[in-house]
Every structure is written in structure tokens, then in C-alpha cells.
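Hi team,

Below is the intake form for Bifunctional diguanylate cyclase/phosphodiesterase from Massilia aerilata. Please confirm the fields before the structure is written into the shared record.

FORM ID: S-0412
PROTEIN: Bifunctional diguanylate cyclase/phosphodiesterase
ORGANISM: Massilia aerilata
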Amino acid sequence: EAKRTGGNHCTMFEPAMRERAARRADIESDLRLALVEEQLFVVYQPVVGLREDGGTDFSAGVEALVRWQHPARGVVPPFEFIQVAEESGLIGALGDFVLRRACRDFMAWQRELGSGAPRLLAVNLSRAQLAQPDWPATVQQILDLEGMHPSQLQLEVTESLAAQDQQVQDRLHELKAIGITLALDDFGTGYSSLSSLHQLPVDTVKIDRSFVCQADTSQHHRVLIEATVKVAQSLGMNTVAEGIETEAQAAAVRGQQCAKGQGYLFSRPLTSPALLDWLRAALPAAA
Ligand code: C2E
Ligand code: MG
Ligand code: MG
Ligand code: MG
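The structure came back. Fields below:
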């Protein structure tokens, strides 16, 4: 079967592959310039607390998400350049930029909003960042420089990353020793399972959007969310439902005792000034 179609595949995909390689090279050289010319910026998506009384805590936290304002192509989404950054070694500089900028913005919100400011900042991590032995020290330096407490920072890693070799595991434990918490991103999409959760040094489990988007319509997905929340709770971990788009999905994940949620229902990712407006609008009128 593979042999019969193999020849065709080669001739059909060769031009596409060449095109992809050329596009990748373009992105890489443009990205190199983008880092120097400060075309990258960071947006923030609120992570809200889903209170047991049915209320919503709008100041629970935010997730930092990188964006690229390309001079010719407009705003480029991360899925188009994160992998290129990883493969070309640019992810270190990109990751440090995002972390620094996000910590600085986070501290500005504290000054601006006091108790109404987000309490937790989540930043996505790449494997290459963890490969640098001195990276935990770099994070500590950034926190010190910005005057941010380590417990206010949460680093997000994927299942495949968290379950990696001993070197990565050691680094994650070093970060935890600083007082930073770790979240397992996109849970349910990787290869690890509920039974291996206890082996990962994470404090929070983020349930992937692919489960959450069917929380209200599929009993199967609801059961999976319920099981994830129960296991996480029994291990002393928090849970966040990603990608909540409707009230029905929010009600469904609340019903499964999921403590936090994130998604377009509450807010799309926002620039720092837009986030401040959003938070101010959410605050009680007296504040
Ligand atoms: P992620 O960490 O799982 O981030 C959540 C993604 O889901 C974001 O996409 C967010 O905009 C999107 N999202 C949030 N709520 C909803 C919703 O209700 N519906 C839908 N359809 N989507 C929703 P984004 O910003 O395009 O980022 C994609 C991925 O790129 C992130 O997934 C993360 O893995 C990666 N990424 C983003 N910023 C960074 C970064 O600074 N460093 C690294 N290493 N990776 C990053
Ligand atoms: Mg994330
Ligand atoms: Mg995610
Ligand atoms: Mg995702």
C-alpha cells in the first residue's frame, strides 16, 4: 500500500516541500530582524476564577501570548513562527523578551490597579529555554529586576516537555525551588495520561480546548474533564479549562468543579492598555 502510493507522494509533495522550506527561511531571517527591530509584542488573555457561588473572579490571572507585527504581513500568529524560532535557536531571545516584557507589564498593573490587578502571570516555555543550564538564574534575575515575587509567576509547559529527560526534569525542579509554579498546558492532547500526572512537577493542569469545546454537548468529554479535575485535586493541583467560548461550556466546566477558566467568552488576548480597561470595567464601581 505504502509502496504503491509512495512514488506519487514524492512527486506531488516535492514542490510543496520546497515552497515550505523557502517560506521557513523567509520567516527565520524576518524573525531575526524582528527581534532587533522590536516588532514582537505581548498580549494577555485573562484567566478567571470560576467561584463556587457562580461568580467570576476577573483578577485571578493572565496568560502572556507573543505576537509579531510584521511590516508587510501584518500580525503573524505564534503557530507560524514559534517552531521556526525553536529550530533556528532564536527561541531563547524570543522567550526572554516575552518574559521580561510580561513581568514589567504585570508589575505596572499592580501599581495601576492595586488589589484589582491580576494575581498570577502565566508565560509559555519552550524546550530550548530549559536546555540552558543557567536559565533558572536568568528568570531569577528578571524577577529581581522587576521586583516581582516568584509565586506570582507560572511557567507553562506541555506534556511532552514536562515528561522529558532528566535534565529537563532537574531544571523544572530548580524553577520550583525558586518559588515559581508550573502549569501543564494543553492537557489531554499529548501522550501522558491521568495515571502519570503525579510524576510531573506541576501545580496546575490546563485542560485543552478540544475537551472544553465539547463540555456542554458530549457526555464523553464531560466525563474526561470530571476525571481530570478529580485526579488533579487529589494530587493537590489546580485546574484551568482552556478555550471557553460559550456560557454553556462555562456552566459545564463549573459543574465539574474546575476552578479557573480562560477563553473568548471572558476575553480575547488583549494588549496591556486594553487589559487595564477590561479589568477596570470588571471592578466594582466604587473602586
Ligand atoms: P496555548 O499556550 O495553549 O495558548 C492558548 C491559545 O488558545 C492562544 O492562541 C489563545 O489565543 C487561544 N485561545 C484562547 N481562548 C480561546 C477560545 O476561546 N477559542 C479559541 N479558538 N482559541 C482560544 P495563540 O495566542 O495563537 O497561541 C498559540 C500557541 O502558541 C500557544 O498555545 C502556545 O503554545 C504558543 N505560544 C504563544 N506565545 C508563546 C510564547 O511567548 N512562547 C512560547 N514558547 N510559545 C508561545
Ligand atoms: Mg499556554
Ligand atoms: Mg494551552
Ligand atoms: Mg493550545
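SUMMARY LINE: Confidence is low (pLDDT under 50) at residues 1-7.

Thanks, M.
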